[in-house]
Design brief:
Residues 279-372 form the M23ase beta-sheet core domain. The protein is α+β, with helices and mostly antiparallel strands. The protein contains five helices and 13 strands.
Protein backbone atom coordinates (compact mmCIF):
# COMPACT_ATOMS: atom_id res chain seq x y z
CA UNK A 1 0.00 0.00 0.00
CA UNK A 2 2.84 2.37 0.85
CA UNK A 3 4.58 1.56 -2.47
CA UNK A 4 1.31 2.24 -4.36
CA UNK A 5 0.95 5.58 -2.56
CA UNK A 6 4.53 6.53 -3.49
CA UNK A 7 3.96 5.58 -7.14
CA UNK A 8 0.68 7.53 -7.17
CA UNK A 9 2.37 10.58 -5.64
CA UNK A 10 5.18 10.36 -8.21
CA UNK A 11 2.69 10.26 -11.10
CA UNK A 12 0.77 13.26 -9.71
CA UNK A 13 4.00 15.20 -9.14
CA UNK A 14 5.18 14.43 -12.68
CA UNK A 15 1.86 15.54 -14.19
CA UNK A 16 1.80 18.79 -12.19
CA UNK A 17 5.43 19.53 -13.14
CA UNK A 18 4.68 19.02 -16.84
CA UNK A 19 1.51 21.17 -16.65
CA UNK A 20 3.27 23.96 -14.73
CA UNK A 21 6.17 23.98 -17.22
CA UNK A 22 3.71 24.34 -20.12
CA UNK A 23 1.84 27.19 -18.37
CA UNK A 24 5.11 28.89 -17.46
CA UNK A 25 6.43 28.75 -21.04
CA UNK A 26 3.24 30.31 -22.42
CA UNK A 27 3.21 32.97 -19.70
CA UNK A 28 6.87 33.85 -20.35
CA UNK A 29 6.12 34.24 -24.06
CA UNK A 30 3.25 36.66 -23.41
CA UNK A 31 5.32 38.63 -20.92
CA UNK A 32 8.08 38.97 -23.53
CA UNK A 33 5.56 40.20 -26.12
CA UNK A 34 4.20 42.79 -23.69
CA UNK A 35 7.71 44.00 -22.89
CA UNK A 36 8.50 44.34 -26.62
CA UNK A 37 5.37 46.45 -27.16
CA UNK A 38 6.23 48.65 -24.18
CA UNK A 39 9.74 49.22 -25.53
CA UNK A 40 8.35 50.04 -28.97
CA UNK A 41 5.92 52.58 -27.49
CA UNK A 42 8.66 54.15 -25.41
CA UNK A 43 10.95 54.54 -28.43
CA UNK A 44 8.37 56.34 -30.55
CA UNK A 45 8.36 60.14 -30.52
CA UNK A 46 4.80 60.59 -31.76
CA UNK A 47 1.69 60.27 -29.63
CA UNK A 48 0.88 56.56 -29.76
CA UNK A 49 -2.30 56.80 -27.75
CA UNK A 50 -4.21 57.09 -31.02
CA UNK A 51 -2.22 54.35 -32.75
CA UNK A 52 -4.75 51.64 -33.55
CA UNK A 53 -2.03 49.18 -34.50
CA UNK A 54 -0.56 49.21 -30.99
CA UNK A 55 -4.03 49.02 -29.52
CA UNK A 56 -4.91 45.97 -31.62
CA UNK A 57 -1.69 44.21 -30.61
CA UNK A 58 -2.44 44.84 -26.95
CA UNK A 59 -6.04 43.69 -27.38
CA UNK A 60 -4.85 40.42 -28.90
CA UNK A 61 -2.43 39.98 -26.01
CA UNK A 62 -5.24 40.82 -23.57
CA UNK A 63 -7.42 38.19 -25.21
CA UNK A 64 -4.75 35.55 -24.70
CA UNK A 65 -4.16 36.67 -21.10
CA UNK A 66 -7.85 36.43 -20.28
CA UNK A 67 -8.26 33.09 -22.04
CA UNK A 68 -5.36 31.77 -19.94
CA UNK A 69 -7.06 33.14 -16.80
CA UNK A 70 -10.31 31.46 -17.87
CA UNK A 71 -8.56 28.13 -18.31
CA UNK A 72 -6.87 28.36 -14.90
CA UNK A 73 -10.06 29.58 -13.19
CA UNK A 74 -12.14 26.82 -14.78
CA UNK A 75 -9.69 24.15 -13.62
CA UNK A 76 -9.59 25.67 -10.14
CA UNK A 77 -13.40 25.82 -9.99
CA UNK A 78 -13.66 22.15 -11.00
CA UNK A 79 -11.01 21.16 -8.48
CA UNK A 80 -12.79 23.03 -5.69
CA UNK A 81 -16.08 21.33 -6.62
CA UNK A 82 -14.27 17.98 -6.52
CA UNK A 83 -12.80 18.90 -3.14
CA UNK A 84 -16.26 19.65 -1.78
CA UNK A 85 -17.50 16.36 -3.21
CA UNK A 86 -14.59 14.44 -1.66
CA UNK A 87 -15.15 16.09 1.74
CA UNK A 88 -18.86 15.24 1.61
CA UNK A 89 -18.07 11.66 0.66
CA UNK A 90 -15.58 11.31 3.53
CA UNK A 91 -18.16 12.75 5.93
CA UNK A 92 -20.74 10.26 4.66
CA UNK A 93 -18.29 7.34 4.93
CA UNK A 94 -17.31 8.39 8.47
CA UNK A 95 -20.98 8.39 9.44
CA UNK A 96 -21.40 4.90 7.93
CA UNK A 97 -18.27 3.71 9.72
CA UNK A 98 -19.53 4.97 13.11
CA UNK A 99 -22.88 3.29 12.52
CA UNK A 100 -21.23 -0.01 11.58
CA UNK A 101 -18.92 0.13 14.61
CA UNK A 102 -21.94 0.62 16.90
CA UNK A 103 -23.75 -2.20 15.13
CA UNK A 104 -20.72 -4.45 15.49
CA UNK A 105 -20.45 -3.73 19.22
CA UNK A 106 -24.15 -4.54 19.73
CA UNK A 107 -23.81 -7.80 17.78
CA UNK A 108 -20.73 -8.76 19.78
CA UNK A 109 -22.66 -8.21 23.02
CA UNK A 110 -25.58 -10.36 21.80
CA UNK A 111 -23.20 -13.12 20.70
CA UNK A 112 -21.32 -12.95 24.03
CA UNK A 113 -24.57 -13.45 25.95
CA UNK A 114 -25.52 -16.39 23.76
CA UNK A 115 -22.10 -18.01 24.20
CA UNK A 116 -22.31 -17.47 27.95
CA UNK A 117 -25.73 -19.13 28.03
CA UNK A 118 -24.40 -22.02 25.96
CA UNK A 119 -21.40 -22.36 28.26
CA UNK A 120 -23.58 -22.45 31.39
CA UNK A 121 -25.95 -24.88 29.80
CA UNK A 122 -22.99 -27.04 28.83
CA UNK A 123 -22.39 -27.94 32.53
CA UNK A 124 -25.35 -30.36 32.35
CA UNK A 125 -25.50 -33.75 30.70
CA UNK A 126 -28.37 -33.13 28.33
CA UNK A 127 -28.42 -36.78 27.11
CA UNK A 128 -29.23 -37.93 30.65
CA UNK A 129 -31.69 -35.13 31.14
CA UNK A 130 -33.52 -36.03 27.96
CA UNK A 131 -33.44 -39.80 28.75
CA UNK A 132 -34.77 -39.19 32.26
CA UNK A 133 -37.68 -37.09 30.99
CA UNK A 134 -40.91 -38.97 31.30
CA UNK A 135 -43.05 -36.45 29.44
CA UNK A 136 -42.46 -36.51 25.61
CA UNK A 137 -43.84 -32.95 25.37
CA UNK A 138 -41.15 -31.74 27.76
CA UNK A 139 -38.48 -33.49 25.70
CA UNK A 140 -39.80 -31.83 22.54
CA UNK A 141 -39.83 -28.41 24.17
CA UNK A 142 -36.21 -28.85 25.30
CA UNK A 143 -35.08 -29.92 21.84
CA UNK A 144 -36.89 -26.95 20.26
CA UNK A 145 -35.40 -24.56 22.82
CA UNK A 146 -31.81 -25.69 22.29
CA UNK A 147 -32.31 -25.76 18.52
CA UNK A 148 -33.53 -22.17 18.68
CA UNK A 149 -30.50 -21.13 20.72
CA UNK A 150 -28.17 -22.79 18.23
CA UNK A 151 -29.80 -21.07 15.22
CA UNK A 152 -29.75 -17.72 16.99
CA UNK A 153 -26.05 -18.14 17.74
CA UNK A 154 -25.25 -19.04 14.10
CA UNK A 155 -27.33 -16.07 12.87
CA UNK A 156 -25.53 -13.70 15.25
CA UNK A 157 -22.14 -14.96 14.04
CA UNK A 158 -23.14 -14.48 10.38
CA UNK A 159 -24.47 -10.97 11.06
CA UNK A 160 -21.26 -10.04 12.84
CA UNK A 161 -19.14 -11.36 9.93
CA UNK A 162 -21.24 -9.34 7.45
CA UNK A 163 -20.94 -6.18 9.53
CA UNK A 164 -17.16 -6.58 9.81
CA UNK A 165 -16.91 -7.07 6.03
CA UNK A 166 -18.99 -3.93 5.37
CA UNK A 167 -16.92 -1.97 7.88
CA UNK A 168 -13.70 -3.03 6.16
CA UNK A 169 -15.08 -1.92 2.77
CA UNK A 170 -16.13 1.47 4.15
CA UNK A 171 -12.71 1.97 5.74
CA UNK A 172 -11.00 1.16 2.40
CA UNK A 173 -13.28 3.59 0.55
CA UNK A 174 -12.53 6.28 3.13
CA UNK A 175 -8.80 5.74 2.63
CA UNK A 176 -9.15 6.04 -1.17
CA UNK A 177 -11.25 9.20 -0.78
CA UNK A 178 -8.70 10.70 1.63
CA UNK A 179 -5.88 10.06 -0.87
CA UNK A 180 -7.99 11.71 -3.60
CA UNK A 181 -8.61 14.68 -1.31
CA UNK A 182 -4.86 15.10 -0.69
CA UNK A 183 -4.19 14.92 -4.46
CA UNK A 184 -6.89 17.53 -5.15
CA UNK A 185 -5.42 19.82 -2.49
CA UNK A 186 -2.05 19.68 -4.31
CA UNK A 187 -3.83 20.52 -7.61
CA UNK A 188 -5.68 23.39 -5.97
CA UNK A 189 -2.48 25.02 -4.67
CA UNK A 190 -0.80 24.72 -8.08
CA UNK A 191 -3.84 26.08 -9.94
CA UNK A 192 -4.23 28.98 -7.50
CA UNK A 193 -0.60 29.98 -8.10
CA UNK A 194 -1.08 29.74 -11.87
CA UNK A 195 -4.25 31.86 -11.70
CA UNK A 196 -2.43 34.53 -9.67
CA UNK A 197 0.42 34.64 -12.20
CA UNK A 198 -2.01 34.97 -15.12
CA UNK A 199 -3.93 37.74 -13.37
CA UNK A 200 -0.70 39.69 -12.78
CA UNK A 201 0.19 39.35 -16.47
CA UNK A 202 -3.27 40.58 -17.45
CA UNK A 203 -2.98 43.55 -15.07
CA UNK A 204 0.26 44.60 -16.78
CA UNK A 205 -1.36 44.32 -20.21
CA UNK A 206 -4.45 46.30 -19.13
CA UNK A 207 -2.26 49.08 -17.68
CA UNK A 208 -0.39 49.41 -20.96
CA UNK A 209 -3.61 49.25 -22.99
CA UNK A 210 -5.12 52.02 -20.86
CA UNK A 211 -2.16 54.28 -21.71
CA UNK A 212 -2.75 53.70 -25.41
CA UNK A 213 -6.51 54.36 -25.43
CA UNK A 214 -6.63 56.96 -22.65
CA UNK A 215 -8.03 59.60 -24.92
CA UNK A 216 -11.71 60.52 -25.15
CA UNK A 217 -11.92 60.37 -28.95
CA UNK A 218 -10.15 57.05 -29.10
CA UNK A 219 -12.22 55.75 -26.20
CA UNK A 220 -15.42 56.57 -28.09
CA UNK A 221 -14.00 54.90 -31.19
CA UNK A 222 -13.25 51.82 -29.11
CA UNK A 223 -16.85 51.72 -27.84
CA UNK A 224 -18.12 51.94 -31.40
CA UNK A 225 -15.84 49.04 -32.39
CA UNK A 226 -17.17 47.02 -29.46
CA UNK A 227 -20.77 47.81 -30.44
CA UNK A 228 -20.09 46.66 -34.01
CA UNK A 229 -18.44 43.46 -32.77
CA UNK A 230 -21.42 42.69 -30.55
CA UNK A 231 -23.82 43.43 -33.37
CA UNK A 232 -22.09 40.81 -35.54
CA UNK A 233 -22.29 38.29 -32.69
CA UNK A 234 -26.02 39.00 -32.25
CA UNK A 235 -26.61 38.48 -35.97
CA UNK A 236 -24.72 35.17 -35.85
CA UNK A 237 -26.62 34.16 -32.74
CA UNK A 238 -29.98 34.92 -34.33
CA UNK A 239 -29.13 32.61 -37.21
CA UNK A 240 -28.24 29.88 -34.71
CA UNK A 241 -31.39 30.33 -32.64
CA UNK A 242 -33.73 27.37 -32.47
CA UNK A 243 -37.45 27.42 -33.07
CA UNK A 244 -37.88 24.44 -30.76
CA UNK A 245 -41.39 24.42 -29.22
CA UNK A 246 -39.87 23.06 -26.00
CA UNK A 247 -38.23 26.44 -25.29
CA UNK A 248 -40.87 28.89 -24.14
CA UNK A 249 -38.85 32.08 -24.19
CA UNK A 250 -39.03 34.64 -21.38
CA UNK A 251 -42.34 36.41 -21.97
CA UNK A 252 -44.29 33.96 -19.78
CA UNK A 253 -41.72 34.42 -17.00
CA UNK A 254 -42.03 38.20 -16.83
CA UNK A 255 -40.98 39.57 -13.39
CA UNK A 256 -40.39 36.05 -12.11
CA UNK A 257 -36.78 35.39 -13.11
CA UNK A 258 -33.83 35.58 -10.73
CA UNK A 259 -30.91 37.82 -11.62
CA UNK A 260 -27.98 35.73 -12.88
CA UNK A 261 -25.75 36.77 -9.96
CA UNK A 262 -26.06 38.68 -6.70
CA UNK A 263 -24.91 42.30 -6.54
CA UNK A 264 -25.91 45.92 -7.00
CA UNK A 265 -26.46 47.59 -10.38
CA UNK A 266 -23.41 49.67 -11.33
CA UNK A 267 -24.72 50.77 -14.75
CA UNK A 268 -28.45 50.68 -15.49
CA UNK A 269 -30.06 49.85 -18.82
CA UNK A 270 -30.31 52.91 -21.08
CA UNK A 271 -27.95 55.11 -19.03
CA UNK A 272 -25.29 57.15 -20.85
CA UNK A 273 -21.99 55.43 -21.50
CA UNK A 274 -20.02 57.82 -23.71
CA UNK A 275 -21.25 60.36 -26.22
CA UNK A 276 -24.38 58.94 -27.84
CA UNK A 277 -23.52 55.40 -26.77
CA UNK A 278 -25.85 54.04 -24.10
CA UNK A 279 -25.87 50.86 -22.07
CA UNK A 280 -27.97 48.18 -23.74
CA UNK A 281 -27.70 45.92 -20.74
CA UNK A 282 -26.80 46.25 -17.08
CA UNK A 283 -23.50 45.89 -15.24
CA UNK A 284 -23.86 44.12 -11.90
CA UNK A 285 -21.18 44.63 -9.25
CA UNK A 286 -20.02 41.23 -7.99
CA UNK A 287 -16.83 39.68 -6.68
CA UNK A 288 -14.50 37.89 -9.05
CA UNK A 289 -15.12 34.16 -9.20
CA UNK A 290 -18.76 34.41 -8.03
CA UNK A 291 -21.17 32.05 -9.79
CA UNK A 292 -23.28 33.20 -12.76
CA UNK A 293 -26.50 31.19 -13.10
CA UNK A 294 -28.87 30.94 -16.04
CA UNK A 295 -32.13 32.73 -15.13
CA UNK A 296 -34.08 30.42 -17.45
CA UNK A 297 -33.59 27.23 -19.43
CA UNK A 298 -32.01 27.44 -22.85
CA UNK A 299 -29.18 26.46 -25.16
CA UNK A 300 -25.71 28.03 -25.47
CA UNK A 301 -25.25 29.46 -28.96
CA UNK A 302 -22.11 31.57 -28.40
CA UNK A 303 -19.19 31.20 -25.97
CA UNK A 304 -15.98 33.07 -26.84
CA UNK A 305 -13.89 36.16 -26.21
CA UNK A 306 -15.12 39.45 -27.72
CA UNK A 307 -13.52 42.90 -27.73
CA UNK A 308 -14.83 45.04 -24.88
CA UNK A 309 -16.98 42.25 -23.47
CA UNK A 310 -14.27 39.72 -22.72
CA UNK A 311 -15.46 36.16 -22.29
CA UNK A 312 -19.04 36.33 -23.51
CA UNK A 313 -21.82 33.73 -23.48
CA UNK A 314 -25.13 33.93 -25.34
CA UNK A 315 -28.04 31.65 -24.45
CA UNK A 316 -31.04 31.03 -26.69
CA UNK A 317 -34.26 30.76 -24.66
CA UNK A 318 -36.60 30.25 -27.61
CA UNK A 319 -39.37 32.44 -29.06
CA UNK A 320 -36.75 34.98 -30.19
CA UNK A 321 -35.36 35.58 -26.68
CA UNK A 322 -31.65 35.46 -25.83
CA UNK A 323 -29.53 36.50 -22.86
CA UNK A 324 -25.88 37.67 -22.88
CA UNK A 325 -23.24 37.43 -20.14
CA UNK A 326 -20.00 39.40 -20.50
CA UNK A 327 -16.84 40.24 -18.49
CA UNK A 328 -16.70 36.61 -17.30
CA UNK A 329 -13.63 35.14 -15.66
CA UNK A 330 -14.43 31.71 -17.10
CA UNK A 331 -17.19 30.12 -19.18
CA UNK A 332 -18.33 26.77 -17.78
CA UNK A 333 -20.51 25.79 -20.74
CA UNK A 334 -19.79 25.37 -24.45
CA UNK A 335 -21.73 26.03 -27.64
CA UNK A 336 -24.46 23.42 -28.00
CA UNK A 337 -24.85 22.77 -24.26
CA UNK A 338 -28.36 22.86 -22.82
CA UNK A 339 -28.78 24.65 -19.49
CA UNK A 340 -31.48 24.59 -16.85
CA UNK A 341 -32.83 27.53 -14.89
CA UNK A 342 -30.50 28.23 -11.96
CA UNK A 343 -27.62 26.17 -13.40
CA UNK A 344 -24.09 27.58 -13.04
CA UNK A 345 -22.85 28.68 -16.48
CA UNK A 346 -19.89 31.02 -15.83
CA UNK A 347 -17.86 32.90 -13.22
CA UNK A 348 -17.92 36.65 -12.61
CA UNK A 349 -14.74 38.37 -13.79
CA UNK A 350 -13.31 41.51 -15.38
CA UNK A 351 -12.35 40.24 -18.82
CA UNK A 352 -12.43 42.54 -21.82
CA UNK A 353 -10.01 44.92 -20.10
CA UNK A 354 -12.35 45.85 -17.23
CA UNK A 355 -10.71 47.31 -14.14
CA UNK A 356 -13.54 46.22 -11.81
CA UNK A 357 -15.07 42.79 -11.51
CA UNK A 358 -18.72 42.44 -12.44
CA UNK A 359 -21.21 40.95 -14.89
CA UNK A 360 -22.44 42.56 -18.09
CA UNK A 361 -25.97 41.20 -18.63
CA UNK A 362 -28.32 41.74 -21.57
CA UNK A 363 -31.68 40.38 -22.61
CA UNK A 364 -32.70 40.65 -26.26
CA UNK A 365 -35.87 39.82 -28.14
CA UNK A 366 -35.58 39.30 -31.86
CA UNK A 367 -32.22 41.06 -31.76
CA UNK A 368 -33.41 44.18 -29.92
CA UNK A 369 -32.09 44.91 -26.41
CA UNK A 370 -34.69 45.10 -23.65
CA UNK A 371 -34.43 46.19 -20.03
CA UNK A 372 -33.46 43.10 -17.97
CA UNK A 373 -35.39 44.55 -15.01
CA UNK A 374 -38.54 43.83 -17.01
CA UNK A 375 -37.89 40.12 -16.59
CA UNK A 376 -35.74 39.79 -13.46
CA UNK A 377 -36.73 40.51 -9.88
Amino acid sequence: MIINAIVKASIIAGFLLSTCQSFAADLDKRQSELKAIQQQIASEQQDLRSNSQQRDKLLQLLKRDEQAIASAAKQLNQTENNLDSAKSRIKELTKQQDSLVSQQQAQQQVLAKQLKSAFLAGNHDYSKMLLNQQDPATVERLLTYYGYLNKARISAIESLKKTRSELQQVQQQAQVETERLNSLAIDQRSQSQQLAAEQQQRQNTVAQLQKVIDQKALGLEQLQIEEASLKRVIEQAMKAMSESPSMEGLAKSSSRLDWPTKGSIRHAYGSARSGNVRWKGVVIDAREGQAINAPAAGKVIYADWLKGFGLLMVIDHGQGFMSLYGYSQALLKEVGDSVNAGEEIALVGRSGGQTQSGLYFEIRHKGEAENPAKYCQ
